[in-house]
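Second attempt. The first submission of Periplasmic chaperone for outer membrane proteins Skp had a stray character pasted in from the spreadsheet, which I only caught after the job came back as garbage. Lesson logged: always re-copy from the clean sequence file. Corrected sequence (162 aa) follows.
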Amino acid sequence: MKKLAVLALAATMSVSAFAVKIGVVNTQEVFAKYSGTKKVQQELVKEKEKLENDIRSKEVELQKLGIELQGKGAKVTEAEKTSYNKQAQALDQFVKGAQKQLSQKEYQSFESIRTTIDASVQSIAKKNKYDYVLEAGAVKFGGTDITQDVIKMMESTKKIDL
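This time the job returned cleanly.
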């Protein structure tokens, strides 16, 4: 009987010796609550509004030219038509370029935030000796939620480039 009790105790001890420490983090919450995200979003909105204003002013100029050409009717020269078409193409290229530029800036800014999230998660995991840190949505039960710790660390470091 003593051998059985000793074996049970040894088995229990060996299982607890190999216990895994798991942390969970809700990266979407971190991303949404991080002040750097809000700052990036505000900057992107400002830049988008500026580009939209530039596009509108160029469209108005092109519309004025189109109305002017329509007023001439049959007296419009080929050079004027060609000039109008070139300006329309230039506006189209400007719009596409502006959209691409804004999209790239958005990607780079948000990628910088994701990198900061990853670095903060790794730092907290090492500091608190977590064996694994998983996305909160992937864990049904258990683990220690480190989401707020990640947000606090990110707010204290403020390493975001716009």
